[in-house]
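Summary of Year 1 activities. Much of the first year was spent building the evaluation harness for sequence design. The harness presents a backbone, in tokenized form, and records the residue chosen at every position. We chose the following record to illustrate the format because it has been used consistently in internal testing since the harness was completed.
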């Protein structure tokens, strides 16, 4: 059972499924100089509690950290432009996340099932948010939407039963 990995500083990318289902993996060091984290790279790593991603990372694939149920904190690097589908979906212990101003699009179910979220702020740089992007975030109370949003897709706030209100920016043309 894999519980730890020594990653050399020469690694520049983590491929698709690299550590998929390594549920006893407690921590991972992502070296500075890494530019991409593939789809499903750490999916179902339910033992992970925190991850620090260096600013050298410019792409994080779909479901890269999906169902990391013990993950309490993660940073999104300042060079990321898209958060893909279910990148952080079902991270039930994740209490919040800061989305940098470099992000322009958030994919389907990107944060679906992040039950411990209580608030989230979407920066002005984001123009679209995908279907169910915050669905099943049962404890989510506040959402601040940036002024750049033009499209809010189906079920974006589905089952966010603690949500007390949202102000939809004037530029939104489709909900």
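For this record, the design step produced the sequence shown next.
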């Amino acid at each position: 059972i894999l519980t730890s990995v020594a990653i050399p500083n020469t690694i520049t990318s983590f491929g698709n499924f690299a550590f998929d289902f390594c549920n006893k993996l407690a921590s991972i060091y992502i070296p500075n100089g890494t530019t991409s984290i593939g789809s499903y790279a750490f999916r179902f790593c339910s033992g992970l509690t925190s991850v620090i991603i260096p600013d050298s990372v410019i792409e994080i694939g779909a479901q890269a950290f999906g169902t990391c149920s013990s993950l309490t904190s993660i940073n999104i690097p300042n060079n990321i432009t898209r958060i893909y589908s279910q990148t952080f979906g079902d991270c039930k212990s994740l209490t919040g996340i800061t989305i940098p101003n470099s992000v322009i699009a958030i994919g389907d179910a990107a944060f679906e099932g992040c039950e411990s979220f209580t608030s989230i702020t979407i920066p002005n740089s984001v123009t679209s948010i995908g279907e169910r992007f915050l669905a099943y975030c049962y404890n989510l109370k506040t959402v601040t939407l940036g002024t750049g949003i033009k499209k809010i897709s189906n079920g974006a706030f589905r089952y966010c039963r603690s949500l007390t209100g949202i102000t939809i920016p004037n530029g939104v043309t489709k909900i």
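DSSP finds no helices and eleven strands in the chain. Quantitative recovery figures across the full test set are reported in Table 2.
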